[in-house]
Amino acid sequence: MKPTTSPTSVADLRSPAEASLPARAVVDETLAAQTPEAMLERLRHLEVHQLELELANAELRRAQIELEVSHARYFNFYNHAPVGYCTLGENGIISEANLTLANLLGVAPGALIGTPFQRFILRADQDWFYLLRQRITESRGALAQPVG
User: Fold this and answer.
1) Pick from 19, 49, 122, 130: CA 20 to 30 A from residue 145's CA?
2) What is the 3-state secondary structure (H, E, C) of 48-84?
3) What is the pLDDT of residue 58?
4) Better-scored residue on pLDDT, 49 or 148
5) Total domain count for the chain?
6) Using CA atoms in the order 56, 58, 60, 66, what is the torsion angle rounded to 10 degrees?
């Protein structure tokens, strides 16, 4: 699986990092005033910080892989569920649908997105569908109202 965003190169990170550092003359004066032992200690701190960043980066890569695996598992379960599922906007337009629903309706999976759901409701059931949709919309509104 590919990551969802392209990795940032070291060169892309270097310019903003250098820009955020204080002026070089100040850093040079500070370094010149330090003893060799203090400079070795500073170098040691930098090495430790680099290792911390590498460990954090490895953890982020591991978490990204876990997220991608979890997403693929969800997508597989959702798409191949034995029941047709879809998500409708408040206007009744299908914004998400699984493969099972597309197969049940005899429509290509991508063709469902952006289609009004009422297109698939029998004329005899249209009134019931509109009433149900109105109740759901009203109940969502009631949930959004502050209590008190």
Assistant:
1) 130
2) HHHHHHHHHHHHHHHHHHHHHHHHHHHHHHHHCCCCC
3) 95
4) 49
5) 2
6) -150
Q: Tell whether the model's pLDDT for residue 126 goes beyond 80.
A: yes
Burial class (CB in 10 A: 0-12, 13-18, 19+), 115: middle
CB neighbours of residue 129 within 10 Å: 15
Report the DSSP beta bridge partners of residue 94: 88
Q: Are residues 71 and 103 in the same domain?
A: no
Is residue 3, in this structure, part of any structural domain at all? Answer: no
User: Are 75 and 93 in a shared domain?
Assistant: no
pLDDT band (50, 70, 90) for residue 145: low
> In which domain, by residue range, is 136 found?
86-144
Kindly state whether residues 73 and 117 are assigned to the same domain.
no
